[in-house]
Design brief:
Elements (H helix, E strand, L loop, with lengths): L1 E10 L7 H18 L7 E6 L2 E10 L5 E9 H4 L8 H9 L8 E5 L2 E10 L4 H15 L19 E8 L2 E2 L3 E2 L2 E2 L3 E3 L8 E3 L3 H10 L6 H18 L3 E2 L3 H8 L6 E6 L9 H12 L2 E4 L5 E9 L6 H26 L8 H4 L3 E3 L3 E2 H19 L4 H10 L7 H5 L6 H9 L4 H9 L14 H20 L13 H15 L5 H11 L8 H22 L4 H10 L4 H15 L4 H14 L16 H9 L1
Length: 616
């Protein structure tokens, strides 16, 4: 016999970024508790809106599973005294396992005679376990930030206002803070705030939707996508793709309604990325583009209520947007009064990292490194690379980037183009930050490639030079991402670069900052990059033993190493690889000390020997 378990935690609005992880943690915690309580269960489903976290588990067993326990205790020699009476060790063992000491048995093991208990724990009523389980789950959901309210000794992401807890349609009684679990949920805060009774998941979903709440995240997302597409078509364009914004907005509303507003034509003179970022970050607006990808003078916002007069809401959004874009226009015009290169001087006072000096010092280091890479791989662009590296960080001192940090690189490119810099230099200013994530876009040109490699290598070696090394999951300077970025750029570009040489040169430029020997730092950085390479190849499904074999033999040129990994992986898949490996191992074992004699073909006795020598 089994029944459905349903839990809804009703709260004040939870930040959208908290919800996906909270759902995973709630499911993990509840399943763990049921497993530990020996309660079998079936399919698990989770639901969420800004005001509620829900979980439903089908086929939760009415009875706990029967458990057979066999427990070995202390040695018999210390469990009984000389007269055969139980000692404190035997009494403690019996007491811990809930039996009388007279019920303890002994068992013969290879190590001697030991105390032994064999017992069966019959399954109890699951319903009696659920109150403490659900209370524990709610109390232990971890949030990035949590809060207390009133004078209660409980914490949650936001104050809890109601709890629905049902097992087989009946209330699971428990208290969290001052909230008693029951069967009453609530509708949309503004359109249907009244309570409504719930008997189970299906009943909840149908009644919630009637109360203007769509608990299913995916259903809301699909509804938003459909509304966006419909409005965009009416406005003669299409939605500028933004999966992250779509994901966030899906967690900001309970019942979505898409509304379109207009952008004043004068603001379209601003760079598209600036308009998009301003509307996205501050207002959560979707932008539209035409068939050629040009930004249209419209935006779409997703309201959390079905409004009777959309024009009022649209006008309000346009009124809020206007001053924000006016600010952006001011910064755009003001920044152009000062050339990019003139912003180098202020960077001499900007601390990049306390132990590594200023941003200007960083520029000096990676400019040298980037220029040397160009000299080695493409001397014709050496001047462009030097110029791009010099200007790469100048936009950090602009008002626009101060207001919108996520536009670093973008604004540098735009200002460089306005000042008449070579387009390849302007592009490199933007692209030297690439890739920004695994599998992300890479620099499109050697100028950006060399500056990107140099900047990332300086960051990596600089942090290692002063002991800022990642530990566990902590990586505040994103050094793992920098190392993967370096490897990805080299591999995708087919660049013949020696990692040890590049690291050694970068570390040498940091000599005045380093707090350890340069050789020690270089060795640590090379090993750090090698381990990222191992992970990178493992993610591409190359056999672990092949990767380990190749990289243990040599890790210098990543392009060459990858070619050897591919070759060995292909060879390993052949039917004759295993006997070949065995034969090779035998030969290696025979000549462990090596052979210094020259081969004398006149001593060959058979054709196979002659053919082998010829092939070698």
């Amino acid at each position: 016999m089994s029944a459905e378990l349903f839990l809804e935690i009703g709260t004040e609005e939870i930040p959208a970024g908290f919800i996906p992880k909270a759902l995973k943690d709630m499911q993990r915690l509840l399943c763990k508790e049921l497993d530990q309580a020996r309660i079998a269960y079936g399919e698990v489903q989770t639901f969420a809106t800004p005001r509620r976290l829900c979980i439903a588990i089908a086929d939760v067993a009415r009875l706990q599973q029967r458990q057979e326990l066999e427990v070995t205790g202390p040695p018999a020699r210390i469990a009984f005294d000389a007269e055969g009476k139980p000692t404190k060790a035997a009494e403690g063992f019996a007491r811990t396992n809930g039996i009388d000491v007279s019920e303890v048995q002994t068992i013969e093991t290879p190590k001697g005679e030991y105390l032994f208990i064999s017992k069966v724990i019959e399954g109890g009523d699951s319903a009696s376990q659920l109150p403490s389980i659900l209370e524990s789950v709610i109390s232990n959901i971890p949030f990035r930030k949590s809060m207390r309210w009133k004078d209660l000794d409980v914490r949650f992401a936001r104050p809890v206002h109601w709890i629905v807890a049902l097992y087989g349609g009946k209330i699971v009684p428990f208290t969290f803070g001052d909230i008693q679990a029951g069967n009453l949920s609530r509708g949309h805060r503004f359109m249907a705030p009244a309570e409504f009774p719930v008997s189970g998941l299906d009943d909840y979903l149908s009644k919630a939707e009637a109360q203007h709440v769509i608990p299913q995240v995916e259903k809301r997302r699909q509804l938003i996508e459909a509304q966006l597409a419909e409005l965009a078509t009416k406005l003669g364009g299409r939605i500028n793709p933004d999966p992250e914004l779509l994901e966030e907005v899906s967690y900001l509303v309970e019942t979505p309604q898409a509304l379109a507003g207009n952008i004043e034509e004068r603001f379209l003179a601003l760079p598209p990325e600036l308009l998009i970022t301003s509307m996205r970050e501050h207002q959560r607006y979707f932008t539209l583009v035409d068939a050629k990808g040009k930004l249209l003078p419209h935006f779409i916002t997703i309201a959390n209520t079905i409004v009777s007069d959309p024009s009022v809401v649209i006008a309000g959004n346009e009124r809020v947007l206007r001053p924000r874009l006016s600010d952006a226009m001011f910064f755009w015009q003001k920044d152009q009064e000062t050339p990019l290169e003139a912003r180098l001087e202020p960077l001499k006072k900007v601390v990049y990292q306390a132990k590594l000096g200023t941003s200007y010092e960083k520029i000096e280091r990676f400019q040298i490194l980037a220029t040397e890479l160009a000299e080695q791989l493409n001397p014709a662009i050496k001047g462009l690379v030097a110029r791009a590296a010099l200007l790469a960080k100048c936009d950090l001192e602009t008002g626009m980037v101060y207001e919108f940090p996520e536009l670093q690189g973008v604004m540098g490119r735009e200002y460089a183009l306005l000042e008449g810099e070579d387009p390849r230099v302007a592009t490199a200013i933007f692209e030297h930050y690439l890739p920004t994530q695994a599998g992300g876009e890479l620099p499109s040109d050697d100028v950006g490639t060399f500056v990107s490699l140099a900047d990332k290598m300086d960051t990596l070696c600089g942090c290692f030079s002063v002991g800022l090394i990642p530990t566990g999951t902590a990586d505040p300077y994103a050094l793992r991402r920098a190392a993967i970025g370096i490897l990805t750029i080299i591999l995708e570009g087919g660049l013949k670069i020696s990692i040890p040489s590049l690291v050694a040169r970068s570390v040498a430029l940091l000599e005045q900052k380093a707090n350890r020997s340069l050789d020690e730092i270089s060795a640590e950085v090379i090993e750090f990059i090698r381990l990222r390479f191992v992970n990178l190849l493992g993610a591409q499904n190359y056999p672990n033993d092949v990767v380990d074999a190749v990289l243990s033999a040599s890790f210098n040129d990543p392009v060459d190493a990858l070619a050897r990994v591919k070759a060995l992986a292909e060879l390993k898949s052949r039917a004759d690889f295993e006997p070949l490996a065995v034969a090779f191992k035998r030969v290696v074992n025979i000549i462990k000390g090596g052979i210094e004699q020259k081969i004398d073909p006149s001593l060959f006795e058979s054709d196979c020997e002659k053919n082998l020598h010829l092939q070698l």
